[in-house]
Amino acid sequence: MEKYYKPQPIKRPFLSKGVIVLLILAANGIVWSILRFGFGLGAVTNLNNQYPWGIWIGLDVAAGVALAAGGFTTSALVHIFYREDFHVLVRPAIMTAMLGYTFVAIGVMFDLGRYYNVWHVPIMGNSNSVLFEVGICVMTYLATLYVEFFPIVCERFIGRVHLKGALKFLNKPIDGLLRFIDSFLGKTMFFFIILGVVLSCLHQSSLGTLMLIAGPKVHPLWQTPVSPLLFLLSAFSVGFPMVIMESLTASRSLGLKPEMDVLRKFARFVGPLLGVYLAFKLGDMVIRGTYVYLNEINIYSIMWVIEMLFGVIIPVRMFFWDKVLRSRTLLYTASLMIILGVALNRFNVFVIAYKPPYILQKYWPSIGEISITIGLISIEILLYRALVMIFPVISVPLKGVSAKAKYAIRGVLQ
Amino acid sequence: MSQSRRNFLKAMGAASLTAVGAKNAKATPKNVLSDDRFGVLVDTTVCIGCRQCEYACKVEHDLPAGNIDDYSDRSVFEHMRRPDHTALTVVNGYPSEKDKQQQVTVKVQCMHCDHPACVSACIVGAISKQENGAVIWDESRCIGCRYCMVACPFQIPAFEYHKAIEPKIMKCDLCYETRTSKGQPPACVEACPTEALIFGKRYELIQIAHERIRKNPDRYYDHVFGEHEVGGTSWLYLGSQDFSKLGFPDLGTKPAPGATEPIQHAIFKFFVPPVALYALLGGIMWLGKQNREEEE
User: Locate the 4Fe-4S ferredoxin-type domain: which residues (chain B) (predicted)?
Assistant: First the structure.
């Protein structure tokens, strides 16, 4: 008998030991956030005139965007290239991307000195600015992700809107509205799916253009005119490992059986994608002759070697090895290595490689910066847990049900 | 190496332009540069390090200036200082190669580039190059992202990190509002007792600078810093020794925005590449759907 999967809200108690740790970290982050918005960037961060950007841009924003690449890569694979065998992975991927981008936006607000002026971006935008392009694409893509997620909200609440008391009269109109939106999105979802992929390609690459304007301030190991291409290729290669890592983590934490059959097939794409990235990265190095910088032992060469060896070269080998694809632990390890490798790449480009000509004071992230970054990640994980318990996101096996959905992220199964 | 990178970028830019249609080739920002734009020539061989310019600048910009007598304290030259939110210009001292007992003093402030990286970078167009040469910051637009600070090759813009609300980007504005827009010299130039700072039209200053080098080849290092650096700057410097030994960064003659604008415009002219990608993906999706329907 063939197995069918159906996305369902997961029924588990919300609290667990891990959740309590996350709640503490989140609370710590919130306390520091109050200080940041109450007393300014200088009170909480170690940023200064030499180092205007720190880990909030390098990790929360740049790495955050890269690691949210699971959404557009998976939806492209399933919906555009019609690999319906990976259906079950689309909803979690879209949801994590949605959460990831939401927290990228929140992270930006922390870093902006005049965050309350952020609405200036769409109306006063300077079309020469790479940052403007990134900003607009991220804003639009975030909206697109909410649209892509909305059918899941419809599926959850159609026929189940039960407001109580004075709001009772709203039940029918809300239900009608949800049905209308669901049927509208059912017909137009293809538009948003393609839009999401295009927007992702645009800003994932533009993120790599951002530091080009800093010219000689960025170490030559990372400062290359093909940086946008490298950023795009690394985003392609980190998307699937991210989905694999999340799927394995979620199934462990929520006590589900991991969908190893699907994940194994899925993981076969990773090796070639990462291999292409590796080829371009090394090709760029050879053409520009930057390998000379590896002769000297310093923070730059060490960080570059860690990034490439543990984040790219070893995982490439692992993903071409059947033993790794069969083992849950090894697959998890290899995926995590790529994720950390790409995150480290973003961190290197934006923070480590940045060496201003006049340094009066070195930059090292402060307790406050680290607390807020960890706090935001904790809240993100907690929201993931809450959302998969509220909405039908994660698929569980069903017996004797035909799950022939037109689009997995669209609400009602047909 | 940088030469090959440049060629590569040229090729890439050319390729993208051909792809997009050669008609639309204005990939540079609107040129507002007036031939009569102002500049300031700093003759560091004349500067005595009195720091009157620092004092005048603070007074002009309503910054706490302190007592003018404190500015004769030469111990500040022991450490390099940088412009920040308390001082838009500072004077630094560097060991002189000609006379070991002497220091060469060099005034530092915004160079007012002809093709400023900060203007190109600013996400909301809060920084602009004025026709008279000044690069100024518009408080009403700024969102405080500090990308201008990342972009500036001279590491000039400073940020008011201590402010929770309305932090400013602080940098020399060439006294645009109060003086140079009316044709008057900036406060620092007016305050300079030795005429180490000369205000005038940029092209005239360049002539003066080369004239001085020609007349006194022993006194000057044969280079006018700012004439060609990053595509030219409004502030120009004369020195007695190599400018890298006077605290100046080694920058090429290409405008500072460099490769970013061609790449940016290649991607976005007429939205052709995004639309083409959209069409391509749509086509693949449609074909997939056809195939699937045939199978059923």
Answer: 38-68, 133-162
A192 in Cβ contact with A148 (< 8 Å): yes
Q: Which pair of structure tokens corresponds to residue B276? A: 């083409």
Beta carbons of A76 and B260 less than 8 Å apart? no
Q: What digits encode the pLDDT tens for the residues A4-53?
A: 678 888 888 888 899 999 999 999 999 999 999 999 999 999 999 999 99
Burial class (CB in 10 A: 0-12, 13-18, 19+), A261: exposed
Report the residue of chain B nearest A79, measured CA to CA: B285
CA angle A287, A292, A296 (to 5 degrees): 155
The residue type at A366: S
Percent of chain A that is helix, strand, coil (3-state, to 5): 75, 5, 25
User: Which structure tokens are listed for B92?
Assistant: 């630094």
* Residue in B110, B120, B127, B161 to test binding to A, most A beta-carbons within 10 Å: B161
Torsion A88-A90-A91-A95 (CA) sign? positive
Distance CA A250, CA A6 (A): 16
pLDDT at position A313: 95
User: Among A38, A45, A228, whose Cβ lies nearest the Cβ of B263?
Assistant: A228
Residue A2 has pLDDT above 50, yes or no: no
CA distance B145 to B151: 12
Tokens 């990773």, residue located: A270
Flag whether pLDDT at B8 surpasses 80.
no
The CATH number of whichever domain residue A114 belongs to comes to 1.20.1630.10
- For position A4, what pLDDT does the model report? 63
C-alpha B231 chain-centroid distance: 10
Which structural domain range is residue A326 located in? 12-394
Q: What is the spatial distance between Cα A60 and Cα A63, in angstroms, rounded to a whole number? A: 6
Cα→Cα distances A302→A307, A348, B199, Å: 9, 11, 48
Interval A57-98: pLDDT, tens: 999 999 999 999 999 999 999 999 988 888 889 999 999 999
What backbone phi and psi angles, to 5 degrees, belong to B165? -130, 140
Residues A325 and A319 sit within 8 Å (Cβ to Cβ):
yes
- Residue A410 in domain: no
Helical pair A328-347 and A227-253, crossing angle rounded to 10 deg:
140
Please provide the average confidence, as pLDDT, over all residues in chain A. Answer: 90
Number of residues assigned to chain A: 414
SS3 B175: coil
How many whole angstroms from its chain centre is CA B37? Answer: 15
The answer to whether position A6 is within a domain reads no
Q: Report yes or no on A406 lying in a domain.
A: no
**Which phi and psi (to 5°) does residue B39 adopt?**
-160, 175
| Residue of B147, B271, B289 to mutate, interface with A, max A Cβ within 10 Å | B147
* Domain count across chain A: 1
* Partner residue opposite A129 with nearest CB, options B120, B154, B289: B120
For A104-151, how does the pLDDT look when each residue is reduced to its tens digit (9 = 90+)?
999 999 999 999 999 999 998 888 899 999 999 999 999 999 999 999
Contact A289 B1 (CB under 8 A): yes
* Residue among A303, A299, A298, A242 nearest A269 (CA): A242
Contact yes or no for A80 and B292 at CB 8 A: no
Q: What is the pLDDT of residue B185?
A: 95
State how far the Cα of A44 lies from the Cα of A368, in Å rounded to an integer: 5
Residue B182 token pair: 């009316």
Q: Which of A49, A121, A190 sits opposite B285 (nearest CB)?
A: A190
Look at residue A414 and tell me if it is in a domain: no
- The Cα–Cα gap between A210 and A104 comes to 16
- Strand blocks (E) in B84-153: 90-95, 103-108, 127-129, 135-137
